[in-house]
Amino acid sequence: MKFHVLTLFPEMIEQGLAPSIIGRAVEKNILSLNAVNIRDFSKEKHSKVDDYTYGGGAGMLLQAQPVFDAWKSVAGDRKVRTVYLTPQGTPFTQKLAAELAKEPELIFLCGHYEGIDERVLEEVVTDSVSIGDYVLTGGELPAMVMIDAIARLVPGVLGNDTSAEEESFFNDLLEYPQYSRPETWHEKKVPEVLLSGDHKKITKWRLERSIEKTKRVRPDLYAKYALKQEIIKKLSKAKRNHIHMIESLSRGLGEVLYYDNDALVIYDRGGETVMLHAGNDSVTEAMYHSIPKEAKLLLVTGAGMARQLEERGYVFICRCSQFLYTAKEPLPVKYKEIRPLTLQDLDYVEEHYDYEDRAYLTERLQAGMMYGAYHENRPVGFIGVHAEGSLGMLYVDPAYRRQGLAASLEAYLINRCIERGWTAYGHVINGNEESKRLQDKLGLYQASNDVYWLGTAEEA
Ligand code: ADE
User: Fold this and answer.
1) Gap from CA of 130 to ligand 1 centroid (Å)
2) Diameter of the chain measured on Cα atoms
3) Which end of the chain is flanked by fewer CB atoms within 10 Å, N or C?
4) 373, 408 contact by CB (below 8 A)
5) If we measure between CA atoms, which residue out of 288, 322, 325 comes closest to residue 308?
6) Closest C-alpha to ligand 1, atom 10
7) Strand boundaries in 326-435, DSSP class E
8) In the prediction, which pLDDT does 171 show?
9) pLDDT-based confidence at 165, cuts 50/70/90?
10) 135 lines ligand 1 (CB under 6 A)
11) Which residues contact 440 (CB under 8 A, 6 or more apart)?
């Protein structure tokens, strides 16, 4: 991942991040950090980059030309997501950090003085972001805060990949308290349950402490968590038909955009997917207007809703059966050579999987969500978890078919889902009898209702 920072104080960025874990990741070539001095692009005497504001008012403004030229020197003709740090931006959150961590490259633009000429902001900025409701003297500290939060989510930056998953702000809850040796310190004992070795009990205790702490310290976050739990409970009354929405919420992927009794709109920003559900199979105006413009895929639980959305300009893609694996026991996996795919396998995956682009497959590989069957150290098939949570992308080389590899790949992936505490589910396009037979063979249940896939006119 490449970070570029456009700034008047490049040494602040370089020196600020060098001694940290981020600095080490730069040394290991997992990250690159490029601080660009805006002043180097001044065309004026004494490298001046600021001027008075038209219309009067106190303070100076960074001018458009040096900022634009500095940006152009980095972005060239590529489309690079460009973050402008400003107290007027949208609040920085863990969710946004996770979204930005999927980009191959980011540009941060640090303001100074009273700000930057609006015209250049209009041309280069994709995201205006604030790190909090207070005003700092410049955007360098906020850029460093963002880089730190984003970089630690990039695979390989933290030694242990799972540690970024289970922590503060994952799934709207604050982290539970943690303890290390000694068992007693200042007459305070480590809670008994943590010494019990009973992992079920420990998980339950940690969740309870997280809930208790979030309720006390961040009632706003707790309200969000409680609403999701209420919705999950309600959807679970017909678990098979609603599994995609239940999993989206419980895995922390989807946010509730609209909820009114029996009508629900969930948005998964990472997967650019909206899930719509209404007991009466009808999309109200309020539901329709809650759909974000940037959403590319719509998953809908009824034919009536699908028809209404088609009338509104969305394009029908396919009708799918939902299958889910509800047992808690792992499945036997016959083929032994299955392991996570890496970025080195990108060309192989792209060559054999027609439905998604290279950027999507890169992201899935980096997220550790694709697994390959290997023969003599060469991949001969693969499977993965889609961004919105379903199993899919199953492929086996023709020469290796009819040997149970597909079943082994799916069983292996289901087992990884169970380890994560997920319920594995997948969508099978109507008519794909071979895939249906595979789901039956592995013991997955079919939901009674189908899910309809729709896309925006450009995407479908
Ligand atoms: N620049 C000055 N203050 C800021 C803040 N709170 N967030 C982001 N950028 C800023």
Assistant:
1) 5
2) 77
3) C
4) yes
5) 288
6) 86
7) 338-340, 370-375, 378-385, 391-396, 424-429
8) 78
9) low
10) yes
11) none
d(CA 460, CA 455): 5
By alpha-carbon position, which residue is closest to atom 7 of ligand 1?
130
Task: Answer whether 115 contacts ligand 1 (Cβ < 6 A).
Answer: no
The residue with tokens 């999927």 is: 102
Q: Is the CB of 130 under 6 A from ligand 1?
A: yes
SS3 307: helix
Q: Residue 18's pLDDT band (boundaries 50, 70, 90)?
A: very high
Return d(Cα 19, Cα 7) in angstroms, integer.
Answer: 20
Check pLDDT > 80 for residue 7.
yes
Assess contact for 262 and 280: CB atoms under 8 A.
Answer: yes
Atom of ligand 1 nearest to the CA of 134: 6
**In angstroms, rounded to a whole number, what is the distance separating the alpha carbons of residues 26 and 29?**
5
Distance CA 319, CA 306 (A): 10
> Residue with structure tokens 């329709």?
288
Residue 219's pLDDT is what?
Answer: 97
Q: 387: Cβ below 6 Å to ligand 1?
A: no
Question: Per-residue confidence at 166, pLDDT binned at 50, 70, 90?
Answer: very low
* Beta pairing, strands 445-455 & 315-325: antiparallel
Confidence at 261, pLDDT banded by 50, 70, 90:
confident
Tokens 């500095």 found at: 70
Q: Ligand 1 pocket, 131 CB below 6 A?
A: yes
Q: What is the pLDDT of residues 417-452, one digit of tens each?
A: 999 999 999 999 999 999 999 999 999 999 999 999
CA of 132 to the centre of ligand 1 (A): 7
Tell me whether strands 184-185 and 188-189 are parallel, antiparallel or unpaired: antiparallel
- Closest atom of ligand 1 to 111 CA is 1
Structure tokens at 264: 């629900």
Inter-residue contact 42 to 91 (CB < 8 Å): no
Q: What's the CA-to-centroid distance between 51 and ligand 1, angstroms?
A: 21
Query: Is there a cis peptide before residue 182, judged by omega within 30 degrees of 0?
Result: yes
Atom of ligand 1 nearest to the CA of 139: 1
CA angle (63, 69, 74) in 5-degree steps: 130
Q: Say if ligand 1 is within 6 A of residue 86 CB.
A: yes
**For ligand 1, atom 4: residue with the closest CA:** 87
